[in-house]
Structure prediction request, 387 residues.
Amino acid sequence: MENFEVVNPTRIVFGKEQLNRLPELLNVEKAKNILLVYGGGSVKRFGLFDKVLSQLSSFNVIEFGGVEANPEYTTLMKAVRLAQENNIDFIIALGGGSIIDGVKLISGAINYKGEPWDVLERKEGYVFQSSIPFGTILTLPATGSEANSGAVISRSELKLKMTMGGPLFFPVFSFCDPTVVVTLPKRQIANGVIDAFMHTLEQYLTYPMENLLQEREAEGILSTLIEIANVVDHPEDYKLASNLMHCATHALNGNLRCGVISDWTTHMIGHELTALFGVDHAQSLAIIAPRLWERKFSEKQDKLTQYGRRVWHLEGDNVTVAKMAIAKTEEFFQSLGVKTKLSDYTADYQGCEKIISAIFKERGWTAMGERKSIDLDDVEQIILSSI
Ligand code: NZQ
Ligand code: ZN
Prediction:
């Protein structure tokens, strides 16, 4: 087992009708001037916004709406200025992963002297030194952002999607109420299932580990997601919705990575597809993952076989089971209504493999994966085979 150190300070308040706990948790933080950040309006349409506001009557609340899916840097900088003008001492993210990620950037940028984009570009010596505390009210189970310290920020005019994070960016608390799934479009529920599934696989589909507990926990999340995937058609079913939300949080709250090696290459390539073509985050993963496993088949075969036997209950010789495991996973994504070819989403794909490999080269991402064996030629071939 690999050595590890883990800390996760986020208080998860899980379940129905828990919002009346909000004032108490804000008082613990001595919050006075609160920036309430939300997205394109779904929270207003479905009544959650008013419920949240009614819990905030004893606080000074400044609203900032309009944060996009795949949150835009320039929009978030407007929120930073609003926060600075209003002496904000606490932020609430009301939304899905995009809103929560956006709030992470806002919280670091408020007291940052300089251009926060330099931090996202990882320029030498540019780091956030402090953050304004924030909490989240989750409306979309998918990313796990409610329980981790990472964020992904887009800058569409540059066609870039950058990651940031660190210990400053854990939410203080996160309200996780599975009944929010009821208002989600089918496409977003499917995205949530796939994102959680892929977060688990990125921390699992490497090579067999001695960390037996983490292997079983990952297989437990994968099996549960397969079992409850019909939440896509039955969002009102609390058993299905609550298990989806629980899985999504657990897939990326830091637990699965304890003592294991991971391979986040599917996410790394996927983010570039979103930046170039605007495909949803989960769609980008469904496009890349099966082709990456095929390309690195010999290296991942042992783990693919274990996954095929334990999660999909496949039988046969090892190679056959490993191949069938890839096919089963792709079929699973398709059964949720998510297409797995880039050409299903855009006709504009010519040359994108070169654009992406050039970006990776510039960032020094030339040896990825659990064995550092995924090079730029692999990246190009994976993308070409996904078209
Ligand atoms: O903007 P509104 O009108 O609210 O609509 C949103 C949005 O259009 C809608 N929605 C959210 N909750 C709803 C709802 N509609 C009806 N009812 C509800 N209850 O759903 C749309 C998508 O929302 P978004 O927040 O973009 O989705 P998701 O949670 O999938 O987040 C995706 C973003 O998270 C990043 C992705 O790259 C992407 O930018 N990720 C963040 C991670 C992290 N911080 O750990 C890890 C992930 O791998 C991922 O990269
Ligand atoms: Zn993801």
Summary: The chain has two domains: 11-179, 184-386. The radius of gyration is 20 Å.
